[in-house]
Write a structure and sequence with these properties.
Blueprint: E1 2-6, E2 13-18, H1 25-39, H2 44-60, H3 62-73, H4 77-93, H5 95-103, E3 106-108, E4 117-125, E5 128-132, H6 140-151, E6 155-159, H7 165-177, E7 185-187, H8 192-200, E8 205-209, H9 212-225, E9 229-232, E10 237-241, H10 247-259, E11 269-275, H11 276-291, H12 309-324, E12 328-331, E13 348-351, E14 368-374, H13 377-385, E15 394-396, H14 400-408, E16 416-417, E17 438-439, H15 444-449, E18 452-460
Parallel strand pairs: 5-6, 5-8, 6-7, 8-9, 10-11, 10-15, 11-14, 13-14, 15-16
Antiparallel strand pairs: 1-2, 3-4, 4-18, 9-17, 12-13
Helix pairs in contact: 2-4, 3-4, 3-7, 4-6, 10-11
Bound molecules: adenosine-5'-diphosphate.
Adenosine-5'-diphosphate binds at residues 132-135, 159, 161-162, 191-192, 195-196, 199, 210-211, 214, 217-218.
Family: Belongs to the aldehyde dehydrogenase family.
Organism: Pseudobacillus wudalianchiensis
Keywords: Oxidoreductase
Length: 462
């Protein structure tokens, strides 16, 4: 079936593609399993040779790639460049060193009772990795798991989001241009039925990024076949601003953390807790800066459009629930003023919020920031931890010991002191969530090892 794709921001047609029939799932696995036999026999530096060609292709076609991402998502072009394309380029730049360090065979101690024996751990590729990716960062969240899975020696099948399918077509072309062996990276274009068929098709590992709801469905299905999974799910990330924080930096951090990609970021700042003594000043500055943001698709815009129309209904429900329970909207349009199908949602600030409101408990995934005062460090930590999620968190203070003390008590897969989100951009740090934030991590040594089977070996000289 031919699929016609429109831009969420302009509603103009941006491309067409062929949907992959469900019956193709078996062929895809056959091709991948064949490609795996040769690829897994190459050394890391031989694999990196192909990846560096891919990196070069990306750099040579930066403008075209940025355009496809921008047209597909409605995010502003500079965001597509910095948070998606450059993050991928950076990740590939470091890939050889990272893979060599993470995947090298490790000698470990052997207890004296096993006299004469030696021990080591070896990391081997798993086979065919199924990567299922979402629409909010369709390039980055497809490419980074693909690159890590490939360098570890696996073959990959990518099922990109049906909301941004032209990015999947782009990825397919980039791998073709870089001359990767046939069948090593295949892209399956389709929706959740195709995703489900691919999960049932017996991958050796599943790397999923998306909603908690779908993550649970995939985990349940994978459990039936005992397929190992890595799940990158949702967030309700807190930001704690202490009285001694650099106010201007914290305000800018909150703005960027909450409104980049119109808040459609699993690690976006979704709640701010501010020390009571600086609360009013912080809120006033936040409102000024929020109202100064420029929204649109022009090159100098700060914020683009929403990508997924249904998301606006969730944002609306959360904001209205908060307003009905006593919150105050002090920046942005009231949801009742939004037009049907409106994709540019003005950034909003909410005050007088509490944890009885959905806006403080559920993932909103939109350009809305609730702000709440706190009196003691203890209270701030308790509020930050009062959530089903645990993906990222940030603490803002001039006292780094205090920052580290607070971070050590937050239940969160990632945390930042005096900045937001950035842990994901450091390929040496593992990235993954606690609680409903997800299971497992990629990036870093541990992340790279997750794409491998670990064999523990003990040797007797005989
Ligand atoms: P979002 O993209 O809003 O986070 P989802 O979690 O539903 O939403 O989608 C993420 C990815 O998971 C998409 O590529 C989607 O097609 C895929 N997907 C959705 N449902 C399933 C399913 N039951 N099995 C496999 N993949 C699925």
């Amino acid at each position: 079936m031919i699929w016609t794709v429109k831009s969420p921001a302009t509603k103009k047609v941006i491309g067409t593609l062929d949907e992959t029939p469900l019956e193709r799932a078996e062929d895809l696995y056959d091709n991948a399993n064949k490609a795996f036999l040769t690829w897994s026999g190459l050394s890391i530096s031989e694999r990196v040779h192909f990846l560096q060609k891919l990196r070069l292709s990306i750099v040579e076609q930066l403008d075209d790639i940025v355009k496809v991402i921008h047209d597909s998502t409605g995010k502003v072009a500079v965001e597509a460049l910095t948070t998606e394309v450059m993050t991928v380029v950076d990740s590939i730049s470091h890939i050889e060193k990272r893979a060599a360090a993470a995947l090298k065979t490790r000698k470990v101690k052997t207890p004296i009772t096993f006299i004469g024996k030696s021990s080591y751990i070896e990391y081997k590729p798993r086979g065919t990795v199924l990567v299922i990716s979402p629409w909010n960062f369709p390039f980055q969240l497809s490419m980074i798991p693909i690159v890590e899975a490939l360098v570890a020696g696996n073959a990959v099948i990518l099922k990109p989001s049906e909301i941004t399918p032209m990015v999947g077509v782009l990825i397919e072309q980039l791998f073709e241009q870089a001359g990767f062996p046939a069948g090593l990276l295949q892209v399956a274009h389709g929706g959740k039925e195709l995703g489900a068929a691919l999960v049932k098709g017996k991958p050796d590992f599943i790397h999923f990024t998306g909603s908690v709801r779908t993550g649970k469905i995939i985990q349940a299905e994978a459990a039936k076949q005992l397929i190992p999974t890595l799940l990158e799910l949702g967030g309700k990330d807190p930001m704690i601003v202490c009285a001694d924080a650099n106010m201007e930096r914290a305000v800018q951090g909150a703005i960027w953390g909450a409104f980049t990609n119109s808040g459609q970021v699993c690690m976006s700042v979704e709640r701010v807790y501010v020390d009571k003594s600086i609360y009013q000043k912080f809120v006033d500055r936040l409102v000024q800066e929020t109202q100064a943001l420029k929204q649109g698709i022009a090159a100098d815009s700060d914020i683009g459009s929403m990508t997924f129309p249904q998301q606006t209904a969730i944002i609306k429900a959360h904001v209205k629930d908060a307003l009905e329970k006593g919150a105050e909207l002090i920046a942005g349009d009231h949801p009742d003023q939004w037009k049907d199908g409106q994709m540019f949602i003005e950034p909003m600030i909410l005050t007088k919020v509490d944890h009885g409101m959905a806006i403080m408990q559920e993932e909103t995934f939109g350009p809305v920031l609730p702000v709440m005062p706190f009196e003691t460090e203890e209270e701030a930590i308790a509020l930050a931890n009062d959530t089903r999620f645990g993906l990222n968190a940030s603490v803002w203070t001039a006292d780094l010991d205090r920052g580290k003390r607070i971070v050590s008590r937050l239940i969160s897969g990632n945390a930042v002191i005096n900045d937001v989100i950035i842990t994901v951009a450091n390929p040496y740090l593992p990235y993954g969530g606690a609680k409903e934030g997800g299971i497992g991590a990629y990036h870093g040594d541990v992340g790279m090892q997750n794409f491998c089977v670990q064999t523990a070996v003990m040797v007797d000289k005989g």
